[in-house]
Amino acid sequence: TQLLEQSPQFLSIQEGENLTVYCNSSSVFSSLQWYRQEPGEGPVLLVTVVTGGEVKKLKRLTFQFGDARKDSSLHITAAQPGDTGLYLCAGAGRVGGQNFVFGPGTRLSVLP
Amino acid sequence: KAGVTQTPRYLIKTRGQQVTLSCSPISGHRSVSWYQQTPGQGLQFLFEYFSETQRNKGNFPGRFSGRQFSNSRSEMNVSTLELGDSALYLCASSAASYNEQFFGPGTRLTVL
């Protein structure tokens, strides 16, 4: 059983469409990070959310942390081919014997 | 500020050999974590070092070991390599154990 679930697993959309990916857990986290990873490279940190209910915007990306700090969403407006990649969420806090727990990721493909 | 560096970037070994991977964290960061990433298992936590001490360990066999030096640089060693050890090995640094993590580009290990 994954401590952090992400949905959908795969998403293929056309350039210009909007999308939302979700990160869910039954555990409470002290903070949650979102990363984007391209093939053969390390994950790149996009944002950290700390406060329940917090919303952060990074250009066309909007991140929300759930009120109970157990879940998060990432919304992309007008997706572009450059948004293609694996989106990973990671919860921080002593869960499952680890300081950070990673979700399995959402693989996004934006077609031109 | 320079990011996390990992060497080598690519490595090809044969079964039974051993390998040492190196990670230099961001200057001032004292926590270094290692992860194994494979297509089937996603990101799996190996271990975390903080101020030269291993603080957490994932569910990997004893063939996987690591250490951290006084300058926070870290190495991980895998002995008696198996085909299933082929993966992208990622190192992440953070200022403290629960702070956000920053990843290096990874070392792609192929075991033949």
Give your account of this protein's structure.
The complex is a heterodimer of chains A (112) and B (112). In chain A, 0% of the residues lie in helices and 57% in strands. The model of chain A has no long low-confidence stretch (mean pLDDT 92). Chain A has strands at residues 5-7, 10-14, 19-24, 31-37, 44-49, 55-58, 61-65, 71-76, 85-95, 98-102, 106-111. In chain A, the strands form 2 sheets. In chain A, strands 2, 4, 5, 9, 10 and 11 form a 6-stranded mixed β-sheet that branches. A 5-stranded antiparallel β-sheet of chain A has the order 1-3-8-7-6, with no helix packed on it. Chain B is an all-beta fold and 112 residues long. Chain B is 0% helix and 54% strand. The radius of gyration of chain B is 13 Å and the shape is globular. Chain A binds chain B through residues 30-31, 33, 35, 40-45, 48, 88, 90, 92-93, 97-100, 102-105, and chain B through 4, 6, 33, 35, 42-43, 45, 48, 56, 58, 88, 90, 92, 97-106, 108.
**Fraction of helical residues of chain A:** under 10%
| Subunit organisation of the chains | heterodimer
**On the 0-100 scale, what is the average pLDDT of chain B?**
93
Rounded to the nearest angstrom, the distance between the terminal CA atoms of chain A is: 36 Å
Outline the fold blueprint:
The complex is a heterodimer of chains A (112) and B (112).
Chain A: E1 5-7, E2 10-14, E3 19-24, E4 31-37, E5 44-49, E6 55-58, E7 61-65, E8 71-76, E9 85-95, E10 98-102, E11 106-111
Parallel strand pairs in A: 2-11
Antiparallel strand pairs in A: 1-3, 3-8, 4-5, 4-9, 6-7, 7-8, 9-10, 9-11
Chain B: E1 5-7, E2 10-13, E3 19-24, E4 31-38, E5 42-50, E6 53-57, E7 64-68, E8 74-78, E9 87-94, E10 102-103, E11 107-111
Parallel strand pairs in B: 2-11
Antiparallel strand pairs in B: 1-3, 3-8, 4-5, 4-9, 5-6, 7-8, 9-10, 9-11
